[in-house]
Every structure is written in structure tokens, then in C-alpha cells.
Amino acid sequence: MTETIRKPYRDTNTIPALKSGRKVSVTGAVFLLGFILLGCVIFSACTGALPISLTELCQIVLFKSGFAETAAFEEQKSLVFWIIRLPRVCLGVLVGAALGIGGASLQGLFRNPVADSGLIGVTSGASLFAILMILFNARYFGIISETGGAYALALAAFTGAAFTTFLVYQLSRFTGEGNVTTMLLCGIAVNAFAGAITGLMTYMATDEQLRTITFWNLGSLGGATWTSVTAVAPFVLCTVFFMPYLSKALNLLVLGESQAAALGVNMNTLKKQIVLLATMGVGASVAVAGGIGFVGLVVPHIIRSAFGPDHKIVLVGSALGGAIVLTLADTVSRTLVAPSELPIGILTALLGTPFFLYILWDQKRRRI
Predict the structure, then answer these.
(1) Which pTM was predicted?
(2) pLDDT per residue over 197-210, tens digit each?
(3) Where does residue 332 rank: exposed (0-12), middle (13-18), buried (19+ CB within 10 A)?
(4) Does any domain span residue 213?
């Protein structure tokens, strides 16, 4: 990360595009969003078909931690909390954080307010390889399924996300100078091709396979276990920890690629780091949760509107904001039509579309 900027640069607060009347520190934003996230986690853990009161939740945690000698709660509620509900909440926090910070970093890299992980092939590649695994599992992928068990589909999706992202990056270097614009165009082309193959595979699917494909594409946290949480956590935590170190370079990139390079930003290194980190986090998240849209698109806009355009706050805030949004969305999805479960991708799209349009309208109104 230290080689992204090769020489001293001026204070990014002097860049006109980053000036804002809001004087919010990173610490203040993290404290506020962290407090909201903690409240959302507690609310989500207590809400469900088997409600758990806040007092019972405290007793369950204290007893498990060894701070209480007597179990003053129902054993069933303890099992539901530790085995079903808490892994799901943790997975929602991790997936939301990865989608949020991935969308914010790619919007900064492409300098495009509607950019998200789909532009570099993460979502389309994961979907394509997951559908291939579903369709040809018994005939061609039997060994992989036996080795990976229930996580063969997640492994295939993560492999597809990494492969298509690598393909987009290599094509951008082969067809042009590897700049951000060329990468964006290559991403659009690869996404279109992957979408066409996905449509063909869907056409070939049986009714049972088509049902599985549809539900995977809609996204869900219903399969959350401690195994899936521990599998995703290293990738997401790596993305969330290292991505904020690139905030100063992204602030300089607001001026344009040539100006940022003149101020010492190593553009090749910056692109590699952002694409790699975004693919790690988002690819792992899509692999275990399926296609969940609008989180990486809407959340960065909310953070910019609330705290300003400085990427030091936008990146960290988008990770926390994404975790908040997805935790609440998952709580609603599993309680709104209980005992059934509404796919979380449907809910995020229904709520995200009008909210995103409102943000665009509000930004236009402020410019007038």
C-alpha cells in the first residue's frame, strides 16, 4: 500500500471537489455508525419467529461467557441464538460491509456515481460459475461437490468472480493503455458476454435447476453457519482493513488520472489494489449470499450526503453503513412474510431503487 503514492502530495482537503461544509472527523463518523450498527445487531438478534427479550439476550451471553452461574432463560432460545440467529447476523454484517466498501472504492476509482462491483465482472462471473455448478454438478463436477460438500457452489461462485475480474483487467491492458476508462468498457463487454452465457445456461436448465438458480440470484442469508462466517471473514476483514489506506490516492484521483499521476499517484498500483481488494470482499460475499443488489450502489451515496465526499470517511462509513443496511434488510426479509422468507435481493432492490432516485433528485436540487 505504501507504493501507491510515490512522492509527497498536497493536502487533499484543498481539492475543490472534496471541500464540504460538514466538519465530521473519521472518529466521529465511525463512533456514530458503529453505535447504530450495534443497535441493529441487537435488534436483529432479538427479532424472529422466537422472540428474545433484551434481558434474556444479556443472560444468554453472560452465561455463555461464564459471568453468570445460573441459566435464567429457556434452553431453546439459547440454541436459536447461538446456532441460527447470531451466525446469520454476523454474516449479514460481513456481507454488507464488503458490498458497501466495495461499491465506494469502485465509484472512487471509476469516478462514476453509479459504479458497483458489477462493472468489473464480480457479480456476473460469480453468477455464471454458480449456474454452471448447478447445471453440470452431477455429470462433470461430482468430484468438486464431494470435496467441497455444501460449499462447492460458494467455491465455484468465488472462482468465477475472481476469474472474470482478472479477465477484465487483462483485457484492459491488452486493448488499450489499461486506464480506468478502458477497464470500464472491458467490464461492460465481459458482463454482457457472461450475461448471455448465463441466459443460455438458464434456458437449458430443468425446472428444479431453474428454481435453484432463481433463488441463488435473488440472494439470501438463510444458509448462514459459523463455517460460512469463518470462511468469509478473512476476505472481508482484509478488504475493510486495507482499503482505507487508499483513501488519499482516491481523493487525488478526483482531479483525473493524469493530474493524480502528476501528484505522485501510481495509477497501475492503485487499480490493482482496489480491484483485488474489492474482488476479495465482494466475491466472497456473493459466493455465500448470492446476488444482493443496490447495497454497494446506494450506501456510498448516503455516506457522502451525510458526512461529505472525503474518501477517508466514505470508505469506512460505507463498510459500516452497508452492514447496517443489510442487517436491517435481512431482519425484515425473515419476519415480513413469516414463516416464509422473502429473498433479501428483492427487498434491497425494492427499497434501493426509489431511495437512489431520491438521492439523485436531491443532488440535482442542491445544484440549482
Answers:
(1) 0.88
(2) 988 988 888 888 88
(3) middle
(4) yes
